[in-house]
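testing teh design pipeline on a random one, pls ignore if ur not involved
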């Protein structure tokens, strides 16, 4: 067949047909499938007819040599290294079963900074704890793909880390490099390939659906937006503060809260601490505080009045056979409530060590979800801030909370004489749906008796 074609061309035939078949331009869609497997597949064609070419017929050898300059052959035969091989994503970690999202509080690094494996690069503030986002690999931060203040979920990508820490120009040849490598005019096949690729890319970009713009936030009907005034600043609430506000309001809406008060003479407990503080530190390595005495007193009260350690669940009452004391700790970011597990089985030294450990982690923002989950009873010490008296709010899903206050020297009648005594007001707020006034008063009286005379714990009286 090729011999016949050559004879027709030499004889000067100008017929647009060969052996009864019309010569027609090859549509781009007919050449593109062959390109997908590499230009080397063009050699498999027995003929190639191009529109507008002065030589309509070429041998396979001519076609292969004309359309495969050395740079082109190298470009298509060399495998590209994917960018995902050098770039890794830093994503938001799992934040706990009860936490679905958080706020990207701050970035600890900047683009271009060097980071090591597991080094924190950002902090996520949730309604309970602050969680670090660690770098999955050693390298350099190439860019951030999220902004401070964004609401993020577990698995959300916030940064891209370049593992090698070097320039990524070696990943693949750029368009400028290809242009320099091919100074000669493009052949018809290359023109078809280029036009087809350009059309495909244009189609993909054009047909990409546009993401719907998020609706503008509307002010809540219950919380109207106040008009701006001079010398005022509007700052969004943190996730932790919003969580605190919601829980406290839910507590008020759910519980039938009532508060009962009493006062405690702190003379004996303060004398006990003064007499043994040095020996206590020397043996246990921690200072003896007043909180351990109140926790032991609260444990004794809960054992005498188990209803206060219970909770309502629907139409049932859940009685707990354990005592986990939650201790409210104020931090710069808000109030957190770490839990002392099995406080009824701990002595004063173990309680003081656990309090110091949890308080330090709370102030550093390193408390975990497990360290704040649960709790059957809460103690809040507002006295460290100078509070004289208050009505604390129950910490759901508990049924009562004990409030401690500042120690003030007041004149008291002791043995028929007026003497100065260090006195503290204590308050118990309880859920009146479950706890009657009788149980609440008995509990508070037990706390008062144990604190005023700690020897009762030794004798169990």
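output:
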């Amino acid at each position: 067949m090729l011999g016949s074609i050559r004879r027709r061309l030499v004889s000067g035939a100008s017929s647009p047909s060969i052996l009864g078949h019309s010569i027609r331009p090859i549509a781009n869609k007919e050449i593109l499938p062959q390109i997908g497997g590499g230009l080397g597949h063009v050699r498999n064609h027995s003929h190639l007819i191009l529109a507008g070419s002065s030589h309509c017929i070429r041998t396979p050898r001519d076609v292969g040599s004309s359309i495969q300059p050395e740079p082109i052959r190298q470009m298509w035969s060399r495998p590209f290294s994917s960018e995902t091989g050098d770039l890794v994503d830093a994503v938001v970690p799992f934040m706990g079963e009860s936490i679905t999202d958080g706020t990207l509080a701050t970035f600890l690094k900047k683009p271009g900074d060097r980071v090591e494996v597991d080094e924190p690069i950002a902090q996520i503030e949730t309604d309970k704890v602050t969680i670090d986002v660690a770098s999955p690999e050693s390298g350099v931060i190439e860019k951030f793909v999220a902004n401070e203040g964004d609401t993020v979920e577990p698995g959300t990508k916030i940064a891209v880390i370049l593992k090698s820490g070097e320039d990524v120009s070696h990943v693949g040849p750029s368009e400028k490099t290809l242009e320099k490598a091919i100074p000669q005019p493009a052949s018809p096949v290359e023109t078809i390939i280029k036009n087809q690729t350009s059309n495909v890319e244009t189609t993909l970009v054009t047909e990409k659906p546009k993401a719907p713009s998020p609706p503008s936030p509307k002010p809540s009907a219950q919380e109207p937006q106040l008009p701006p005034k001079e010398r005022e600043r509007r700052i969004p609430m943190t996730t932790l503060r919003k969580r605190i506000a919601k829980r406290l309001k839910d507590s008020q809406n759910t519980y039938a809260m009532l508060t009962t008060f009493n006062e405690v003479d702190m003379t004996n407990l303060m004398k006990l601490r003064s007499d043994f503080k040095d020996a206590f530190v020397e043996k246990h390595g921690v200072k003896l505080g007043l909180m351990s005495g109140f926790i032991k007193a609260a444990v004794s009260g809960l054992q005498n009045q188990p209803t206060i350690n219970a909770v309502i669940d629907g139409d049932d009452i859940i009685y707990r056979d354990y005592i986990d004391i939650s201790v409210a700790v104020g931090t710069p970011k808000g109030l957190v409530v770490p839990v002392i597990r099995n406080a009824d089985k701990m002595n004063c030294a173990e309680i003081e060590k656990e309090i110091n450990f949890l308080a330090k982690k709370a102030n550093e923002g390193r408390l975990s979800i497990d360290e704040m989950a649960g709790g059957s009873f809460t103690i809040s010490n507002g006295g460290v801030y100078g509070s004289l008296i208050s009505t604390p709010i129950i910490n759901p899903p508990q049924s009562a909370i004990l409030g401690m206050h500042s120690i003030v020297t007041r004149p008291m009648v002791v043995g028929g004489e007026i003497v100065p005594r260090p006195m503290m007001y204590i308050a118990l707020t309880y859920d009146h749906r479950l706890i009657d006034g009788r149980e609440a008063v008995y509990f508070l009286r037990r706390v008062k008796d144990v604190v005023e005379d700690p020897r009762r714990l030794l004798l169990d009286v």
